[in-house]
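Record 1 of the preview.
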Amino acid sequence: MTDWTTDPIPEADLNAPPTGAGWINPQDQPRAFWYLILAQTIAPGIVSELAGMNPRKWDKRDGTGQSGATIVYNGDGLAAFPCKLQIGWNSRYLPTPREQFAEWDTFKALLKPPTEKNPAGLDIFHPVLAMLPVQIISVVVEDVIGPKWIAPGVAEWEIKFLQNRQAKPAGAKSSGSKANSKDGSGGLPDPIDTMTEGLVNTMKDLL
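->
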């Protein structure tokens, strides 16, 4: 695990992401993977572990008196994945440990069980989730575990997410209006692309 306690961090280390993580152009934005954005809010501390998934549902249909089987695609499943946040490390690219814990006290309100005023679905952005074949952009909180003290003054929380996505017929494609453009968008920006672009710009401001 990368030692986050050294301050200042040597420039060579800033340009070399932690071993074993998935990265988009790490030479340009090696610290982008430190940050999680949930419901337009930057999570405190750093993301120490996060791996998304794109599960599929398959039906296996055996033939009577036949070898093998027919495999039928039955739509996408819902991704379930944990995210670990570590709060309290010293780094010139992070708020002070005291400030990080104060930010957690505010951020944890997003993780409470849903109510009418606090809906279950939360927009989410992290570069790892953007790397998936099907990007995960909305989640619900399944569980929160912690804190686990992993070093003096450093706490780790594990947040278990479940993908939030409405059911739709497998393989269905939306059709554009009569006045649409060739791509079926009607000349309007794609809402997912617009949201993702905004979150990417927010993250770039951190780097």
